[in-house]
Design goal:
Length: 492
């Protein structure tokens, strides 16, 4: 297999795009700004979806589905919310096509104009809260804990597969509560669900924290985020959870009678992650040989490559592989026997490396006779020969070690790129080299914007569970007093 992957050090952006293509994850579509997620890429997303769906349901969340199209008037009810998405909305104005009378193919029927334009879902707060009005009458109807898995459209001019596309897949949770305290607790709970998933399944160290007012979700009173560092030192917002207050309850008149009989407006949260997690997985772990997948999310955890010359050797090796595969599958391990007889072993080795399969087994006739088998681990690019009789028992522990090693490597890399900074000239010098800088901030949006204008750096979060630096100091830019440090970085 001829690998065409640009080295990271040469062109990081092209390296990323090359891996997306060479690992068979996705490709560009005929629709500008949209991608085709190929079966191997979608299999990774399905594993993410399955795990997260289970984690959500453990907290009492149920899945539902709401319309793709949203009446334009719904967006007018929450001005701050619509302002955050207005420039990204795709609008449906007509409902019918017709053959062009002049013979120039199909055109929009001018008589089929909609009475009210429909917005293709950029996010679903408005349509969902218009429905919650029908569901909520009493405090006994609360909380409502709904999630939906769906696609959304945010019209993007500059796109990159998984990281930023005009259409993408995601989940969006929307909950309604009787009290502010309950809604705030749910907001915190869900961001920690995301953090646990990132750390334990994606092998991705993340920082949990609050967004600054400038970086909050449109219409939110508070936004919590998980921020991850990619291998170029840039930050990637990997998931967010929002406390929306009573804004949507009031906009859509979602009122309920409390225990005292008085009417109150419901309190809201929303939270979501998207196929952007696929981009995080690629950029946090992969190398110049291709994709590296944490075993917990790998569609294929073990690839088996037979080596043979004659048909009799092939049959014997494949028979042994079938025996091993059956035993491994019984342990919950996903296995692929690569029995393609039109490709040489070297091509297969390269293909499974590019696709990031955590473990590869190679077995030939001589190995079979000697009772040995070769094990290759993708994270370290190392191999060893072990006894066939011990391989089934050893692989679960090996996969666990690979998972831990991938996380440890990402965590060590991040640690090497995080530092405190108290000098503005030093800040300007270091921020563009790919670092998370822990700096004092005076709490004003004016200072935050001035720093962004000067350096492109933003406050990624005000951390709550790591890098917590509650110590007095002076703002890195304005010199005004500050009680704590925040995380600055240049982000995707």
């Amino acid at each position: 297999m001829s690998k065409v992957i640009t080295p990271r050090a040469e062109d990081y952006s092209k390296w990323y795009n090359d891996i997306v293509v060479e690992a068979d994850l996705a490709e560009q579509s005929a629709v500008r700004g949209c991608m085709v997620i190929k079966p191997y890429g979608y299999a990774i997303w399905e594993k993410m979806q399955s795990v997260l769906d289970g984690m959500f349901k453990e907290t009492g969340v149920q899945n539902a589905y709401f319309p793709l199209f949203i009446p334009k008037s719904f967006f007018s009810r929450e001005a701050e919310h619509v302002a955050g998405f207005a420039k990204e909305c795709a609008v449906v104005t007509h409902h019918r096509l017709m053959n062009d009378p002049a013979g120039n193919g199909v055109v929009v029927d001018p008589d089929a104009k909609l009475e009210e334009e429909l917005i293709v879902r950029p996010t679903s707060e408005t349509i969902i809260w218009s429905v919650y009005k029908n569901w909520v009458k009493s405090w006994r109807d609360l909380p409502i804990l709904c999630n939906q898995w769906c696609n959304v459209v945010r019209w993007e001019m500059r796109t990159r597969p998984f990281l930023r596309t005009s259409e993408f897949l995601w989940q969006e949770g929307h909950t309604a509560h009787a009290t502010a305290e309950e809604a705030q607790a749910r907001t915190v709970q869900m961001v920690h669900v995301y953090a646990d998933f990132a750390r334990k399944w994606m092998a991705l160290p993340v920082v949990v924290g609050h967004k600054s007012p400038n970086e909050r979700f449109a219409g939110a009173l508070d936004t919590l985020t998980i921020e991850a560092m990619m291998q170029d030192g840039k930050a990637l917002q990997a998931g967010t959870s929002h406390f929306l207050g009573q804004n949507f309850g009031k906009s859509f008149d979602v009122q309920f009678a409390g225990p005292d009989g008085n009417l109150q407006y419901a309190w809201a949260t929303s939270w979501g992650v998207s196929t952007r997690l696929m981009g995080a997985l690629i950029m946090a772990h992969s190398d110049d040989e291709g994709l590296i997948l944490p075993p917990a999310l790998a569609p294929i955890q073990v690839a088996m490559v037979p080596i043979y010359k004659a048909d009799e050797e092939r049959a014997a090796v494949l028979e042994k592989f079938e025996e091993l595969a059956k035993a491994l599958r019984a342990k919950g391990i996903s296995v692929k026997i690569d029995d393609r007889d039109t490709l040489r072993p070297g091509f297969k080795f390269a293909e499974w490396e590019v696709k990031g399969v955590p473990v590869r087994l190679a077995l030939g006739a001589r190995d079979l006779a000697a009772g040995s088998i070769e094990i290759f681990r993708r994270d370290t690019l190392t191999k060893e020969t072990v006894s066939i009789d011990s391989v089934v028992e050893s692989i679960p522990a090996l996969l666990d070690d690979i998972q831990k090693n991938i996380y440890a490597k990402a965590e060590a890399f991040r640690a090497s790129r995080v530092e405190k900074c108290d000098n503005w000239d030093e800040f300007k010098e270091k921020i563009g080299t790919g670092k998370f800088l822990l700096c004092h901030w005076d709490g004003t949006p004016e200072t935050e914007q001035a720093i962004k204008d000067a350096t492109k750096a933003t406050i990624r979060c005000i951390p709550v569970d790591s890098f917590v630096c509650e110590e007095p100091g002076r703002d890195i830019y304005s010199g005004k007093p500050s009680e704590r440090r925040v995380v600055f970085a240049i982000a995707y």
